[in-house]
Every structure is written in structure tokens, then in C-alpha cells.
Specification:
Number of strands: 11
Number of helices: 1
Structural class: mainly beta
CATH class of one domain: Mainly Beta
Radius of gyration: 25 Å
Shape: globular
Largest sheet: 8 strands, antiparallel
CATH superfamily of one domain: Glucose Permease (Domain IIA)
Order of helices and strands: HEEEEEEEEEEE
Helix content: under 10%
Distance between the termini: 68 Å
Strand content: 25-35%
Length: 187
């Protein structure tokens, strides 16, 4: 006569599984306080760092960001903006002026926003100096000429921990890629 079979125990009800789940939950950051840690995106940028604004009120993008293949490769490490209206430049986020002056014949303004994020605006003229605090939306400069941008345009670059990133990541995201039909497909 065969031995009686025991009812299977659900793997989620076993004492080992329950203990594992309890350890996992207690070990999560913020579990004890109920706080949810900020969730970084693919570039490591947390949601709280996305409260940025464009450095111009009215503009047209004339040159998009192009990621170089390697640190010394060709690319476009920022966005070029052609102002529509006033050529006054505003800070995209609060921070402290890290540099204001001439480099290779063009005016540069660099703002350190903390958390490894640094903005570079060029070519500009600014009355600010290193150490001056700025708040999001403060007028910080006016566009001049020089550099690699077309005359009258603003180059807006952002570095995170020393590496250039696409400023669109901080301004609402990079537009989603859309795959288009290829090769003259017949419908």
C-alpha cells in the first residue's frame, strides 16, 4: 500500500521564504522610516534633480547634443539655442558660480549645482564672479559672440561628475525614439 502523500507547501508560505522576505524588506533603504529613496534613471539622475528650466525664455534649438564615442571623440557636448526675443540668460537650477570669464576668446559662465551637476553657458557676458549664489531662473548673463556657436546663439552644456550629459535629461527627458519603416517597403 502506497504511503499517504502530504499536501504540498506553497513556497511563499514556507518559514524560509517568509524569513527571506522579511530580511529583504527590512534591509531596503528607507524601510524603517517609510521613506522611498529617489529613483535614478538610466543616466543616474534622480527625479529631484529634474526641476530645471531652460536658460532662455524663448528660443529655437539649432544644434542638438551628440554623444562622442569616447572622451576625446567628436560630438556636440551641449545644445545650441537661438533666442527668440531677449538674449538674457537665466540659470537652469540653483547653485554657485564656479567660473566667470574669458576662455579662448569667448565668455564662459559655469555654475555648480551640487550633486556633481555643472552647467556651462557660452558665449556670454556676466557680472557674476566665483562663489556668487544663484537661484533657479535668475538672470545671470547676456549672449555675446565667440566660440563654436553661431553668432547670437547660446551653447548650453551640462556635466555630471565631470562627464558631459544631454541637458534634455534634466529638462523633461530625451524624446523617445520612433522606428520608421525602412527601405521603401510596399504596403
Amino acid at each position: 500500500m502506497p504511503s499517504p502523500r502530504r499536501a504540498p507547501v506553497s513556497r511563499w508560505r514556507s518559514p524560509t521564504a517568509l524569513l527571506s522576505i522579511a530580511v529583504l524588506v527590512v534591509g531596503l533603504p528607507g524601510a524603517a522610516t517609510g521613506a522611498v529613496p529617489p529613483k535614478p534613471d538610466a543616466q543616474g539622475i534622480e527625479a529631484g534633480q529634474r526641476d530645471w528650466r531652460w536658460p532662455l525664455d524663448g528660443f529655437r534649438i539649432t544644434e542638438h547634443y551628440v554623444q562622442p564615442a569616447h572622451p576625446y571623440g567628436t560630438g556636440h557636448r551641449g545644445i545650441d539655442l537661438s533666442p527668440v526675443g531677449a538674449a538674457t540668460v537665466m540659470t537652469p537650477a540653483s547653485g554657485v558660480v564656479a567660473f566667470s570669464g574669458q576662455v579662448a576668446g569667448r565668455g564662459i559662465l559655469t555654475i555648480d549645482h551640487g550633486d556633481g551637476l555643472v552647467t556651462t553657458l557660452e558665449p556670454v557676458t556676466s557680472e557674476l564672479g566665483p562663489g556668487d549664489p544663484v537661484e533657479r531662473g535668475d538672470v545671470v548673463a547676456t549672449i555675446t559672440v565667440g566660440g563654436h556657436s553661431r553668432p547670437g546663439e547660446l551653447h548650453f552644456g551640462v556635466r555630471r561628475d565631470g562627464e558631459y550629459i544631454n541637458p534634455l535629461l534634466l529638462l523633461g527627458g530625451v524624446p523617445r525614439a520612433v522606428l520608421l519603416p525602412c527601405c521603401g517597403a510596399v504596403g
